Amino acid sequence: MRKRIVIVVSLLVCLPALATTKAWTGAVSGNWSNPQNWSPQTVPAAGEALVFPAGLTNNTVTNDMAGVVVGPVTFNGTYTLNGNELTLMGDLATDDHVNETFVCNAPLRLGASVY
């Protein structure tokens, strides 16, 4: 039993270090669940950092997945977030050098600071 606890704790500590940063492309639709809307082309895994770049025309994003928990999220342009609840376990940031707006129409749980 003790070995199992050590393995589980080790996985919880190590998995965030293996997470990659996902960038929104909105190439196919506004749906979060479509891997083709992300680069690399997989939906975000728990704890991954997300970047929403400036200059995209598809800037309305719908979180159509349940129980999404992500790491830090950066909005570098104007975006509207709709859909299911999103839990942030990292910073929520915007680029203060450009004139953008972030509208959150989805329930948002904050697990860290907002800048």
Low-confidence residue ranges:
6-15
Shape: globular
Number of helices: 1
Task: Calculate the terminal CA-CA distance, rounded to whole Å.
Answer: 42 Å
Q: Going across the major beta sheet, what is the strand order? A: 2-1-3-6-9
Please tell me the overall pLDDT. 84
What's the helix-strand series? HEEEEEEEEEEE
Query: Major beta sheet, specifics?
Result: 5 strands, mixed
Helix content: 10-25%
Beta-strand content: 25-35%
Based on secondary structure, the structural category is alpha/beta
Number of strands: 11
Describe this structure in words.
The chain is an alpha/beta fold and 115 residues long. Helices cover 15% and strands 32% of the residues. It has one helix at residues 2-18; strands spanning 21-24, 38-39, 49-52, 60-63, 68-70, 73-75, 79-83, 86-88, 92-94, 102-104, 108-110. A 5-stranded mixed beta sheet has the order 2-1-3-6-9, with no helix packed on it. Strands 4-7-10 form a 3-stranded parallel beta sheet, with no helix packed on it. A 3-stranded parallel beta sheet has the order 5-8-11, with no helix packed on it.
